[in-house]
Amino acid sequence: MKPTRLHRIYLVPGFFGFVNLGDVRYYKHVHALLQHRLGQADEPGVVHEVATHPTASLRERTRRLYQAMAATAGPDDILHIVGHSSGGLDARLFVAPGVSLDDEVEPFASRVRSVVTVATPHHGTPAAAAFTTLAGKRLLRLLSMFTVVVLRRGSVPLGVVLDLARLVKALDSQLDTAPGVVDELFVGLLSELTEARRAEVAAFFEEVGDDQGLLPQITPDALDVFNATAQARPGVRYGSVVTRARPPGMHGVVGAGLSPNAQASNAVYLACHHLAAPSSFLGEVEALADRWPELAPEDNDSMVPTSSQLYGELIAAVDADHLDVIGHFSGPEQAPPHYDWVRTGTHFRRPDFERTWDQVLAFLMAAR
Predict the structure, then answer these.
(1) pTM for this one?
(2) What is the architecture of the domain spanning 1-368?
(3) Beta-carbon neighbour count of residue 203 at 10 Å?
(4) Domain boundaries, given as residue ranges, for the chain
């Protein structure tokens, strides 16, 4: 009996991939939705989450993608890659003709039929440049820990959120961050986890602290070089999901109401939005004009400029922040619950999430 040919979808995380810890999974909600939809489809398919290194170089991260494919893909399977944030750059590099890692990658790269990038900095992000400084790397580590705790518990102590907002905002003015302050906040967040998780999380951050090759590679200047070399592969269908968080303003303060935690979370968003805002458009934006006629150069999703995200066909242009779009939005009533990493006032919810990923799946399954 001939083996069944499968559609295999590989989900590649971005530099927020550090939330792949225990039951806190980067693509938890996306994986569940896509696998459920595939179970209802006429053609069988399997979804894989790639275990990558969140801050390693694009080359190292792409090698991890190859290892995942080599371990799972059957000889007749149809291969697809979905990359969020810098994971979209991993996907492009993996399939780009002439720049693959080595000869053994090509048999898999040549079988990929579609690549979808979600909130990917195809033209770079100013936030990466800010976080490449010594102070920036320490603050990114703290922001990472903040995200892990929020996505596990739904909230963090108010004082930590306020301090984090002040530190991230001060980074842009070249704050000489006192290591003791950042480390104290990191340890405080770590204590919010169970004892069983602390050692795992601490060891993980210790490991990634030794490899910070990714950040210099996703600055706007570095992506000019990347785009000149990582050409599209003939026969591969490329598409993108573009995200835009609600621009900061008084509506955010009013929307947060009287909740101190909501106000503090909004302050973190304001600081991140400021770091990610370019002074001019970074890519082609004509295709986005119908969706956002008021689109401004500084618009972003709290990590990546909106104008930097378009590559290939436009699958969807959605109002969402950087982690909303992969399921980390406010939805405590869901099972399992969805937790919002920062308060943006964008109001991305479950119907938006399902509609976006149904569009992605339709795009993938149409590729042959």
Answers:
(1) 0.90
(2) 3-Layer(aba) Sandwich (3.40)
(3) 9
(4) 1-368
